Amino acid sequence: MSTHYPGTAVEITALDSYIKLSRATEVVTQRIHSHLSAHQLTISQFGVLEALYHLGPMTVGQLGSKILRSSGNMTLVIDNLVKRALVRREPRPEDRRCIEIHLTAAGTALIAQIMPQHVTGVVQTMAALTTEEQQQLATLCKKLGLSVSRLVV
Fold it and tell me: Residue 77, exposed/middle/buried by CB under 10 A (0-12, 13-18, 19+)?
C-alpha cells in the first residue's frame, strides 16, 4: 500500500518508503519469531537471552540498549525470566550497587536449543533477497539507523 497523502514528491516518496519499511519489518519479525511461542518467550525475552548468550553478563541498562527496550520494560522482562530461572541477578564484585544479569544453566540450555531454529528462520525469510540484496539492505538500514540516532529529539 502506498500513501494517499497529497503531498510533495519528497513527502510521498518518504511516506511510501516508511510504509513499506514498516510493513516489511512487521511481517518479517512475525515470521522469524513465530517459533518463540512454543517456548513461552516474548521477543524481548528472547532478545535478552540471545544477548547474554553471545555477549555475556550485562546490566539491565546495557541489555535495554542492545535490544532497544526501555529500562521500565526491561525490569519486567528480567523479572519474568528470573521467575522461570532462565537468568539471575548478581551484584558486581567491584561495585555491589551495580547488578548484572547472568544466564542460568537452564537459560543457556534453552537459548542453545532455540538458536539453530531461529537462524534457520532468518535464513529462510531473508532468502527472498539475493546475497547482494541482503548486503544492500543491511547497508541502507545501518545508514538510516545511524542517521536517525544522531538527531536530537
Answer: buried
